């Protein structure tokens, strides 16, 4: 049994809204990353408001957030006649592009060539973080980090061992997947299932703006899960880790809600 | 050019005598382990003196050492008429048998199935040593140990990873092979080369007692190197680690000096 047209949208928004992270600047970053990441992509102040305001965020809060994003160099704005248009700066676009592959992969390729980097454990030691060739390592302890891919060439101070996990104790699972991350994934999975039941039978019943609002909420909340989830073999996660189910539900919904054209958003 | 018969033996003894470890009880342990490890094997006080005294150790020092070894349960003594006979106790024989495989292997089998055990690195942590399934692990740091062979089954607190070394930094090589161990191996290698040049052309020119004395000195000194050398892949040792050359020289000489019969030692 479906709600009336207005009711289902309000209920879906309520369900999908992140109970933890309602920072408006962060929601705007998710929105631009999802809809207007290409060079030349712009969103008018009006379209921005029509997408964001149904979530209960006030125009004043949007203005403050845009001001902050301009100050931080993420977003720039320009006037076209009476219309104010907003777009990602080169810096903002680069940051957005950096995380997009992790956010938008429905099936991440299984990482290979796992290896450990071990730093010396002594009083005057250099912190492991300063010795790591990149940041893409998961820190297992003060002196041990785990990563995948090609072996680093330039880390003379570190013991490098190719490895594959045989037994993973609970303290490692908790380190890889702390309770907050587990709860965030579980909460999103529940929200997505509820939202799926609320949606109308056909995507044609949604306006481009409604589609944009729902995608924004889903992507924003998924970012918090997927970007905090270390890329580690399944063995490192708790047996009941809802990450893969959550990812599947995200992409089932995003596929059902295809990205609207920017022109359609401005037209309404 | 060879020395006169007496001179070569005195020079070989001087060359082979360990400059670091002249503890008489320890030399006697090496001697019994080499010549009289089997149940029923006995050495008379006279034979013991004739083997040991050429190294400059006085009869009184031998008596004190035997007293200590009896007190510690390593050795027992019995009178046969006017002769005092000494032999390993069951305890002493077991200790001796425990280390013999490592001491007497001319070519140790390459260890396989290397794995790391990683303990949690936190304030209230249980020391790694208390969590290790056996003592045959090399401690790389406070929380990381390396071992070979079958994966441990019963260490729930530890992360277990099969591994193979790719890059070994200097701090690991120094930990695996500290300067004292390196110097001991290098010193023994030099001593063995000098001794080889001093020996007569044919082993038939040596008496059983001379053979026993030289074997005792070689084995005693080799113990200090081989029992302190961790069983780790070659990559973990310094590039100029003299261990393998030292082992080869030890067994070249021990083969040239075959173990004399106990009866031959008593007959002289």
UniProtKB/TrEMBL annotation, chains A, B:
Biological process, per Gene Ontology: DNA-templated transcription
Top-level taxon of origin: Bacteria
Residues covered by the Transcriptional repressor PaaX-like C-terminal domain: 202-250
Gene label: paaX
Matching SUPFAM superfamilies: Winged helix' DNA-binding domain
Protein name: ArsR family transcriptional regulator
Domain Transcriptional repressor PaaX-like N-terminal: 25-90
Pfam families recorded: PaaX, PaaX_C
């Amino acid at each position: 049994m479906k709600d009336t047209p207005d009711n289902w949208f309000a209920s879906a928004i309520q369900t999908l809204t992140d109970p933890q992270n309602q920072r408006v600047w962060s929601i705007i970053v998710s929105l631009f990353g999802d809809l207007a990441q290409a060079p030349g992509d712009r969103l008018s102040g009006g379209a921005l408001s029509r997408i964001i305001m149904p979530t209960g965020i006030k125009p004043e809060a949007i203005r403050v957030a845009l001001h902050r994003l301009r100050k931080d160099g993420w977003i720039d704005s320009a006037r076209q006649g009476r219309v104010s248009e907003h777009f990602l700066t080169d810096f903002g676009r680069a940051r957005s592009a950096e995380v997009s592959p992790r956010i938008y992969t429905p099936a991440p390729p299984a990482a290979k060539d796992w290896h450990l980097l071990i730093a010396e454990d002594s009083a005057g030691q250099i912190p492991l973080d300063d010795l790591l060739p990149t940041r893409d390592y998961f820190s297992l302890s003060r002196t041990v980090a785990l990563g995948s891919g090609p072996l680093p060439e330039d880390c003379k101070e570190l013991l490098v061992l190719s490895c594959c996990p045989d037994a993973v104790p609970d303290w490692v699972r908790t380190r890889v997947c702390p309770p907050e991350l587990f709860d965030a994934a579980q909460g999103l999975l529940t929200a997505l299932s509820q939202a799926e039941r609320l949606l109308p039978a056909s995507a044609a019943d949604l306006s481009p703006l409604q589609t944009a609002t729902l995608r924004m909420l889903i992507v924003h909340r998924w970012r918090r899960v997927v970007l905090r989830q270390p890329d580690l073999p399944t063995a490192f996660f708790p047996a009941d880790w809802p990450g893969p189910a959550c990812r599947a539900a995200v992409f089932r919904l995003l596929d059902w809600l295809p990205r609207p054209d920017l022109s359609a958003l401005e037209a309404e």
